[in-house]
């Protein structure tokens, strides 16, 4: 039997049983959300349904926000690959203004498609909302904005453009105002033209 050696700077390889438990927990949580809604997700119930100890769920995911983030992680990985290394207009090769628009439109689509999960994630502590993916989204957007408007505070503008792309506002726009994802993207285009 061969054993993989750890790579410096990388987390240790996940044990096979831990990987199975992680996948089982994610599958159970996804099923429970599909049946009962994300707002009713309980880590205790997930543990019970997955036949693992509650401690396993908490050690693995930390809290409810950690589990919800794990559920949206695959989509986030695809999204990041698209804007970091994918084809234009989101990826390298397109002019910065086109990349900004494509990035924001795709982010709106992500929030719409997994609205319930993002509502729960964004209701968590600021670290959950403004850490991880937000930090990367912000850095990417600020870098592009600095190319388009070098005299402006690109970091502030990135925050300002990301602010309306939150699940709570998008949920309100869709349920109370009847806006479609295309209408929300058109509004974002109007905002971009003001820049």
TrEMBL record:
It comes from the Bacteria. Residues 19-79 form the HTH tetR-type domain. Residues 42-61 bind DNA. InterPro entries: Homeodomain-like_sf, HTH-type_TetR-like_transc_reg, HTH_TetR. Keywords: DNA-binding. PROSITE patterns: HTH_TETR_2. It holds the Pfam family TetR_N. Signal peptide: none annotated. PANTHER family: HTH-TYPE TRANSCRIPTIONAL REGULATOR RUTR, POSSIBLE TRANSCRIPTIONAL REGULATORY PROTEIN (PROBABLY TETR-FAMILY). This is TetR/AcrR family transcriptional regulator. It comes from Nonomuraea mangrovi. The lineage of its organism: Bacteria, Bacillati, Actinomycetota, Actinomycetes, Streptosporangiales.
């Amino acid at each position: 039997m061969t054993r993989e050696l750890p790579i410096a700077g990388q987390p240790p390889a996940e044990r096979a049983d831990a990987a199975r438990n992680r996948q089982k927990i994610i599958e159970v949580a996804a099923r429970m959300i599909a049946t009962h809604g994300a707002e009713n997700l309980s880590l205790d119930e997930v543990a019970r349904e997955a036949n693992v100890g509650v401690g396993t769920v908490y050690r693995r995911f930390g809290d409810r926000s950690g589990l919800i983030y794990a559920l949206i992680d695959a989509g986030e990985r695809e999204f990041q690959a698209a804007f970091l290394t994918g084809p234009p207009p989101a990826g390298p090769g397109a002019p910065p203004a086109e990349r900004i628009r494509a990035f924001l439109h795709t982010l709106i689509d992500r929030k719409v498609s997994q609205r319930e999960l993002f509502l729960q994630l964004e209701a968590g502590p600021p670290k959950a909302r403004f850490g991880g993916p937000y930090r990367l989204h912000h850095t990417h957007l600020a870098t592009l904005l600095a190319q388009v408007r070098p005299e402006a505070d690109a970091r502030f503008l990135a925050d300002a453009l990301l602010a309306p792309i939150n699940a709570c506002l998008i949920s309100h726009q869709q349920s109370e105002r009847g806006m479609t994802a295309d209408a929300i993207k058109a509004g974002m285009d109007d905002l971009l033209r003001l820049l």
